[in-house]
Amino acid sequence: MAREDYVPVTGDDWYQRRRDDAEGRFFRKVADQGPRKGAGGSTRQGIYCFTASGKLLAYKNAGQAPEVMRDVLKQALRQWQKLPASERQPGAVQVGEPGKADQRYARTPPPGGLVLNVFTRILDRDEKEGFRKGACQAAWGDMAARDHLWLTEAEWKALIPADPKKGGERPVPAAVVERIARFHLVDNTRGEPPLWRRDQVRSKKMTLTVEAVTPKEVRLRLDGSALLATKADPKEADRGYDVRLLGYVTYDPAARKVTRFDVVAVGDHWGEGTFTRGARPGRAPLGVAFELSAGKSAADTVPPQGAREWAEYMGRNR
Amino acid sequence: MMTKATCLTFGVLPLLAWGLAAAELVPPQQFDKLHALIKPHQDEEAWASIPWRSSLWEARKEAAAKGKPILLWEMDGHPLGCV
User: Fold this and answer.
1) Residue B18 falls inside a structural domain
2) Lesser CB count within 10 Å: N end or C end of chain A?
3) Does A188 reach chain B within 8 Å, measured CB to CB?
4) pTM
């Protein structure tokens, strides 16, 4: 039904309820017809069905059972069918260009940069396999969470040695280490996570070692570690992540592009944030996996969660 | 879209091989397996079979042109890219 009868679209309410441009105003006009009117700047999140002209047909908060959502979509279609043809016929509603976007809330991948998919999952230790999928009581908390890591062209190029020699080792640039540590070594498996403040990064180190050099590729291994904790003494910290990283980066010198960027981070995490209640008790393993984004779907252009605070994310306020 | 996790298993199993403790090295021979374990599994990808657009304005134009209503999944934390 979502695929055939609707034009399905997603949005991050943090941006949509703030942006002062045509798209933001249109969204709020629709949302104001429902129960969530954003009083005091509060969330307007949910599932909305509406017309291209902005008439709300149905609303339901997200997180419902599939059969509930199916009923909502059917109800909205019935409302749609009751509308006059002048609202429903193809081309009946004219939608022009939106005009200039509110640049405070416009996020686009850096030109020439790298976009990495970032996945996070709780793990359990396993006698035979080392680790297995984690289990928890929080709804959906055992599933992989998603985010993206953005690197500028200058940042990813700085990872590749100009004159690579097997065995050569170099540190990952500080800005990249900080971005990974503060914004991507987080527990987002139960909701929007608290990101690490700069002073909560108790230690961090990442290096790249040249493993192989051929005319076709330069292969690098990434080794790293980070200790993230809300207090200087991790034993006293109510939230933390003590993690090691291993990864492989491959560069094609002829094509001048990175062809592989796979990294795994694993360690024990503990604690929870305002929107990530229901963490497992004590310290338990959390894994983070990075990979190159295919760049083929709408999802691939979604900005990193940490990019809401753009200057912080890009390290421009250090 | 998702199945509920209802189990409770936090007993620390005997620690073997590379699953030892916090801040232990990730053994290179286990890298691919662990990378795949952390990434979304097939049963977690049902929502992705819907061709979600990411621009509300573009969706609005498409809906007008096709004569269809719009289905908007709006969350704090982008549904396609966060949490």
Assistant:
1) no
2) C
3) yes
4) 0.88
